[in-house]
């Protein structure tokens, strides 16, 4: 009897298994060179299936040495063109042709291959891919009841994160480092279990990185050259909570059930965001809502009634399109991070789907701030009406988000009324922030004293000073200083040569500024400023904003956030290299364009740092290198 196996059955290890069962004992196993070439290419690319197939060929060689079978290699290696079209069936066709020429039984575990071969009149033996009961993985033995994650790496002592939520400790859990052979054995055991057990699957398989979902564990396996050694990181949720376990549970439950909502669950890494999201998902699913999830990778622990989706064709936007056909009442979007994620979240919410997103944030307001510039300002309350901030496993803050047309807090002129996003503490009912457009830029103004700056200066005061300074600097050539006297009055100090330019003919220019800002402005020279020279050794300030006496404080700037960029306007220094600082700390070096600005693409690491500094109301300065 002659048997020709294809690549699928060699990778599955079913050729030797079938021989061991006695079905092909004494047969001649003719392995096509095309199979060997395909396995070799996969192994060279670091793909585990290639190594699995080569191990199966070694088992067949051992069986041949024992006289159980005869083993031969037949045919020719495929050329580059045929290998390039392997996904289109070129190599499969070569293998079928060999089976036909030899009059052999064609052995495959690929159902498509089996049907095509039968249609061509071949004698086909189709074996289903083997699944087996998978016991406890070795990596599972490192976990105890308080272990959230285990971290293993070649040449390093095994470590784990253990403890209660918010009080995690990163500690060694063994005495000796692991060698490469042991790590390779652990990694192969995990991947094999994911393939063979119905309790697991490969979430991601790329050269150098595999992410496995196995039972309650999400396991990432890194290999060289992607990592500098074999590394295994296994994560497991340590807490399974119900929504009733959290404060404000009754109010939140009522809010979630009265109608579909747009909710952001925010907090720092490890704070318990996903645990709370799981509790919310189970709660609304138990109350007759159809619930789905969008995750990459999938690691939320939810019941069987909740289907977990990942990227479709490498894009969450395609997943969203498919979900709209499924018509869920609520969708849990785990890890909303990039601009594309926020856009997909907003599109689904505006389509009427209840959306619950999980985002990283260090303060409650930061979650909402991340929408600014990514979603049209006026649409934010339609996209997100509730923000839940989790800290140390507890609900720390809940915000209600809504739009009102009003005069922003701290301003007095009635003609300054505009749409204002009001962020209210859900528990106390007190407004804590207002977000609105002021002089062509979006500002977030804290209404409490908790975030007051130096001298307990309120958020409104800081915004007002920035806007007054910006307006006057567009007119004056020299140094500008602003002092707020009250909510509707300010004094501006400028160089004596700039007085006439700032005031304008008949006071027309300063009146225009007052009308735009809704603030009465008194213009004076620096000599009339009692604080002039303080902190700079009594020296005068130069036109670029640097103090005298050898200091170089830099030019204060007000970045503008657009949908794609953060734009930093710079007065002077065109074509020069400058340093951008926030709160006196270096951020990055850049070259000022001829148009007098620096553009930073949103989504980059630099932009993230700059946005965080802006959110914290840190002064941003530009200093010549």
Automatic annotation (TrEMBL):
Membrane spanning stretches: none
Origin superkingdom: Archaea
Region of interest (Disordered), ranges: 524-555
Secretion signal span: none
CDD domains per UniProt: PIN_VapC_VirB11L-ATPase-like
Ranges for domain PIN: 1-115
A Pfam family this chain is assigned to: T2SSE
PROSITE patterns, alphabetized: KH_TYPE_1
Domain AAA+ ATPase: 259-384
Segments of skewed composition (Gly residues): 534-552
Keyword terms: RNA-binding
InterPro entries, per the entry: AAA+_ATPase, KH_sf_prok-type, Nucleic_acid_metab_PIN/TRAM, P-loop_NTPase, PIN-like_dom_sf, PIN_dom, T2SS/T4SS_dom
Gene3D superfamilies reported in the protein's UniProt record: 5'-nuclease, P-loop containing nucleotide triphosphate hydrolases
Family membership noted in the UniProt record: In the N-terminal section; belongs to the PINc/VapC protein family.
Name of this chain's protein: Flp pilus assembly complex ATPase component TadA
Organism: Haloterrigena gelatinilytica
């Amino acid at each position: 009897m002659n048997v020709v196996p294809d690549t699928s059955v060699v990778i599955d290890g079913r050729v030797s298994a079938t021989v061991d069962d006695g079905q092909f004992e004494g047969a001649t196993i003719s392995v096509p060179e095309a199979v060997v070439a395909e396995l070799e290419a996969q192994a060279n690319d670091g793909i585990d299936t290639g190594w699995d197939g080569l191990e199966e060929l070694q088992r067949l060689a051992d069986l041949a040495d024992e006289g159980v079978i005869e083993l031969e290699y037949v045919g020719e290696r495929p050329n580059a063109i045929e290998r390039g079209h392997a996904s289109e069936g070129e190599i499969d066709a070569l293998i079928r042709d060999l089976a036909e020429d030899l009059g052999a039984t064609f052995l495959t575990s690929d159902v498509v291959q089996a049907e095509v071969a039968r249609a061509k009149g071949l004698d086909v033996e189709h074996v289903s891919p083997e699944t087996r009961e998978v016991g406890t993985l070795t990596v599972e033995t490192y976990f105890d009841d308080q272990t959230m994650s285990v971290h293993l790496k070649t040449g390093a002592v095994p470590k784990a994160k253990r403890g209660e939520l918010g009080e995690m400790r990163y500690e060694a859990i063994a005495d000796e480092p692991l060698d490469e052979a042991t790590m390779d054995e652990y990694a192969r055991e995990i991947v094999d279990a994911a393939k063979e057990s119905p309790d697991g699957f490969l979430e991601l398989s790329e050269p150098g990185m595999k992410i496995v979902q196995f039972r309650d564990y999400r396991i990432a396996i890194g290999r060289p050259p992607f990592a500098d050694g074999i590394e295994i990181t296994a994560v497991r949720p340590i807490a399974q909570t119900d929504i009733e376990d959290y404060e404000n549970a009754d109010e939140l439950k009522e809010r979630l059930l009265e109608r579909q909502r747009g909710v952001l669950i925010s907090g720092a890494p490890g704070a318990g965001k996903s645990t709370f999201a799981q509790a919310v998902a189970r709660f609304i699913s138990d109350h007759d809502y159809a619930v789905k999830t969008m995750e990459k990778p999938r690691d939320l622990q939810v019941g069987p009634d909740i289907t977990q989706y990942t990227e479709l064709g490498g894009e969450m936007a395609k997943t969203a399109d498919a979900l709209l056909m499924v018509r869920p009442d609520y969708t849990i979007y785990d890890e909303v991070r990039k601009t594309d994620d926020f856009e997909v979240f907003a599109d689904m919410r505006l389509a009427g789907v209840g959306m619950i997103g999980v985002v990283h944030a260090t303060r409650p307001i930061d979650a909402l701030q991340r929408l600014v510039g990514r979603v049209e300002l006026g649409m934010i309350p339609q996209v997100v009406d509730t923000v839940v901030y989790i800290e140390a496993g507890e609900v720390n803050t809940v915000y209600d988000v809504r739009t009102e047309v009003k005069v922003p807090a701290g301003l007095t002129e009635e003609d300054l009324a505009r749409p204002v996003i009001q962020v209210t503490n859900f528990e106390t009912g007190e407004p804590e922030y207002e977000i609105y457009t002021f002089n062509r830029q979006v500002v977030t103004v804290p209404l409490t004293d908790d975030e007051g700056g130096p001298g307990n200066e309120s958020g409104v005061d800081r915004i007002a000073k920035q806007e007054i300074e910006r307006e006057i600097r567009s007119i004056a050539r020299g140094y500008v200083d602003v002092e707020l006297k009250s909510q509707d009055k300010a004094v501006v100090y400028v160089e004596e040569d700039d007085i006439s330019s700032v005031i304008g003919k008949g006071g027309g220019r300063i009146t225009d500024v007052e009308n735009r800002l809704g603030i009465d402005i008194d213009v004076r020279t620096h000599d009339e400023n009692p604080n002039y020279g303080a902190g700079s050794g009594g020296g005068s300030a130069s036109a670029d904003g640097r103090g005298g006496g050898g200091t170089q404080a830099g030019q204060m700037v007000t970045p503008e956030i657009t949908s794609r960029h953060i734009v930093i306007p710079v007065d002077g220094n065109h074509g020069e290299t400058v340093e951008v600082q926030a709160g006196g700390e270096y951020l990055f070096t850049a070259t000022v364009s001829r148009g007098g600005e620096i553009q930073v693409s949103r989504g980059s690491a630099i932009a993230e740092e700059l946005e965080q500094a802006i959110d914290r109301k840190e002064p941003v300065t530009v200093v010549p290198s």
